[in-house]
Specification:
4 helices; alpha+beta; paralog of FGE (formylglycine-generating enzyme)
């Protein structure tokens, strides 16, 4: 588990590379889709964090040119605060998911993801289980399919091509999210473990330390301020965020919501 590759970010705590064992588990082959999440909402009447708060973060490039002025994040102005952006309206009130039923649900907080998982008798994956699954049996490989990003010129995940954030050539066929099963499955039969959307994990975020980090089914610290997200998203690019790798990780506030974050569920066996 982990990476010390030059593409990694020391502050993210990907390293040290360390042996980890996990118990047997089942993982959803795809991220939870809008269709899946609609069934949950219809069955429970659940109201998401973004709906309660009244806004969520949307990537500016997904907004129409005549969209009303919005606040941006100081260090990342391509993220815009859009009122009434929710899982059903990913770019704000003018947008819908009518043609995106198979796309991953987005604008879901860690709390929303946990509620959905519990509804199905499942849970969010511990980071170690997620990373094990994302590797697809390729121990130590840089990506889920090997060490080359685009082998033989083929695009195997939904990431950014071009110059971030100004121009995306969409050579992989997608500008925003793509269907949850769009790209080839990895060695364990799982789709889009990297790219497309960041995925919430169960763990609190911490920087691993070899001498104290457990190797047998680690679940991270028992408390914290940030939750782990894995896998990168359609916005990842080598010049900005080369986190479209199994080892990559970030820590995010559990109430955070954005247009490039989703999840999948795990069931212990």
């Amino acid at each position: 588990m982990g990476s010390e590759d030059p593409m990694s970010y020391p502050a993210d705590g990907e390293g040290p590379v360390r042996p980890v064992s996990v118990s047997e588990f089942l993982l959803d082959t795809c991220t939870v889709t809008n269709h899946d999440f609609l069934s949950f909402i219809d069955g429970t009447g659940y109201i998401t964090t973004a709906e309660q708060r009244g806004w969520s973060f949307v990537f500016a490039g997904l907004l129409p040119d005549d969209f009303e002025p919005t606040r941006g994040v100081a260090d990342a102005p391509w993220w815009r605060q859009v009122f009434n952006a929710t899982w059903q309206h990913p770019e704000g009130p003018h947008s819908t998911i009518e043609d995106r039923s198979r796309h991953p649900v987005v604008h879901v907080s860690w709390f929303d993801a946990v509620a959905y998982a519990k509804w199905l008798g499942k849970e969010l994956p511990p980071e170690a289980c997620w990373e094990y699954a994302a590797r697809g049996g390729l121990d130590g490989a840089l990506f889920s399919w090997g060490d080359e990003l685009n082998p033989d010129g083929k695009y195997l995940s939904n990431t950014w091509q071009g110059v971030f954030p100004a121009r995306n050539s969409a050579e992989d066929g997608w500008y925003g999210t793509c269907p949850s099963d769009q790209f080839p499955e990895n060695g364990y039969g799982l789709h889009n473990m990297t790219g497309n959307v960041w995925e919430w994990c169960a763990d609190w975020f911490a920087i691993p330390v070899r001498s104290v980090f457990p190797t047998d089914g680690p679940k991270g610290p028992v408390t914290g301020n940030l939750k782990v997200q894995k896998g990168g998203s359609f916005l990842c690019h080598a010049s900005y965020c080369s986190r479209y790798r199994p080892a990559a990780r970030v820590g995010v506030s559990p109430d955070s919501t954005a247009s490039n974050v989703g999840f999948r569920c795990l069931k212990q066996v």
